[in-house]
Amino acid sequence: MSHEELVRRYEAGGGKLAAANAEGLAVPPSLRTALLTCMDSRIDTFALFGLTLGEVHVLRNAGGVVTDDVIRSLTISQRKLETRDVVVVQHTGCGLTMFSDDDFCEELATEVGMRPPWRTHAFREPALSVRRDMAQLRHDPFLLPETRVRGFVLDTERFVLEEVYLDG
Ligand SMILES: [Zn+2]
């Protein structure tokens, strides 16, 4: 049912609205920033940071964690589309806090007969996960040396951001 609803809304004017919203925007994000956050459907990244279209690259995955594919996107974002800063936002009450990587992979293996080739990046404490990911970004050889990284935990009850410091 649900995919029909998306197509229906597109046909009801979504396509026209999207075209109007993107009119005149350059491909490189004007704030030269990439934002990495969770796919959680409650997080309105544009409202949270007062953004409009054309300003940032928004990368979203389960958890808002640094994966090989995030590195791939950030490298392209920097090398070909002029971004420099990276903002990482993970959050309280995330689905990734509700299981452990080992348990998840074990359940999958039991069900389908093999372990996944990827890790879930499950975490208990979002601040520790953000700090770990910031450290990984800082040391990634493919990102530009002048990359500036900031990390935050979003409290999804009060929608308050708490900054995480790599050296703190
Ligand atoms: Zn989440």
Automatic annotation (TrEMBL):
It is an enzyme of class 4 (lyase). Belongs to the beta-class carbonic anhydrase family. Zn(2+) binds at residues 38, 40, 91, 94. One of its GO terms (molecular function) is zinc ion binding. The gene is cynT. Catalyzes the reversible hydration of carbon dioxide to form bicarbonate. It catalyses: hydrogencarbonate + H(+) = CO2 + H2O. InterPro entries: Carbonic_anhydrase, Carbonic_anhydrase_sf. Its cofactor is Zn(2+). Keywords: Metal-binding, Zinc. Its EC number is 4.2.1.1. This is carbonic anhydrase. SMART domains: Pro_CA. Binds 1 zinc ion per subunit. Pfam families: Pro_CA (PF00484).
